[in-house]
Input
Amino acid sequence: MSLARVHNFSISLDGFGTGEGQTIDAPFGHACHRLMEWAIATRTFRDMGMHGDTPATRGVDDAFASNWAPGIGVEIMGRNKFGPQRGPWENEDWTGWWGDNPPFHTPVVVLTHHPRPPFELEGGNAFHFVGADPVSALAQARAMAGDLDVRIGGGVQTVRQFLAADLIDHMHVVVAPIVLGRGERLWDGLEGLEDRFEIEATPSPSRVTHLTFTRR
Amino acid sequence: MSLARVHNFSISLDGFGTGEGQTIDAPFGHACHRLMEWAIATRTFRDMGMHGDTPATRGVDDAFASNWAPGIGVEIMGRNKFGPQRGPWENEDWTGWWGDNPPFHTPVVVLTHHPRPPFELEGGNAFHFVGADPVSALAQARAMAGDLDVRIGGGVQTVRQFLAADLIDHMHVVVAPIVLGRGERLWDGLEGLEDRFEIEATPSPSRVTHLTFTRR
Output
C-alpha cells in the first residue's frame, strides 16, 4: 500500500514550522536556519549538498533524517516551500531553491492555484503544478508514484491541510528547543489529533526531540 | 540564593497549559485531566491525595515530579489556579480546590487585583492575596520564604508573566502528546526564550517529554 509520509518536519517549542517574513534569502523567514540546524549537521543532509563546519553526524538525528528518501516515489509540496513568490507567476524563471539538481530525484507536485507548465531538472526532478484539494492531489501523486509512497514535503500549511483531511499515515516532526514567537503554526485546527496517531518521543543529544506519529 | 522554580507544569503539543472553559468541576476546562495524567500516576501525586486505578509509578515521571516540594518556602499562584471565580469576590467561602489540608504546606501567595483577607488551612497552608506585579510579588514571597526557594505554581498566565519578566531560574515543563486546539498558550510573547535558558529534553515511557529550563 502506498503511504503518505512526512519526514524531517521541524517546529519550534511554540509550534511554528516557519518564521515570519519569507524572502528569497530567508526561506524560513526570521527563523533563519534555526529550525534545521539539527538536520544540517547530519550525513543525510550533507549528502544533499548542505554545508557545515563540523563533521557530519551519524547519530539519532541522522537515523531519523535518513528515512526521508527510501520508498518515496513522489513529493507533494506547497507553493511556499517551492518559492517566495505569491499570486500569479510573473515568469517561469524560478525553479526552486535547490539548484540544477534538487535532492528529491522523483516527480514533485507543487500545489498552487496559479497554472504553470511542468519542467524537469537533472536527476529525475520533474516539477508539476497542480491546483487541487489534498485528496485529488494525493490521488494524482499516487498515480505517478506507482507502488511507492508519497512524501508530503511541507510547508506548514500543506502538512496541516493533509493532517486535517486525515491523509497522513506516518509523520516525523522534530521539535527544536527555540521559541519563535511568530510564523505559521503546525497544530492549528488539529484538536484531538492524538486520537488518530500513536505518538512516540525520542530526544537527541543535539537537544531536539523527534516525534513520530503512526496512524492507529 | 533563593531561586524561583516552576515544576510539573504540563502543556499540550500545541503549547496550551490549560483548556477552554474552566468551571468548578473542570479546573482545566475541556482538557479535563489529560494534561496531568502522567502526574496522577506517580507516587508523588498519589501521596498528595490523587487517586488512580493503577499502582503508583516511581519511574522518570516520578523522579521529576518529586522535585516539586523540597527546598520550597512559598508558592505563588495566579487566581485562575486558585479557583474558577473572576472579578470581585462575592464571598469568602472558596478556599481552593484542595480541601482542608492542601498539599503545599507553605504560605501561598495568590495574585489578584481583588482584595481578600488571608486565611489559613491545616498543614501550614496560609493563603495571602496580593495585587502586585511579578517583581513585587516575588519580593514579598521571598520575605516569607526565608532562605528557601519560591515556586511559581501556575496557571499559564502567571508562569508566562514571570518568564516575560525574566524572574524564573528553573522551569520543568511536561509536554503531553495531545493537541488541545484551544485554551491558554504558555509560549506566547516569549520569542527568543532559548537565549536565556539551557534546555534539556527527557522522554518518558508514559509518552510525555520532560523539558528542563536552566537559567544560563
Q: What stands out?
A: DSSP finds six helices and eleven strands in chain A. Chain A touches chain B at residues 13-15, 175, 177-182, 185, 187-194, 199-203, 207-209, 211 (CB under 8 Å). The first helix of chain A runs from residue 37 to 40. Helices of chain A lie at 37-40, 43-47, 60-65, 79-82, 134-145, 156-164.
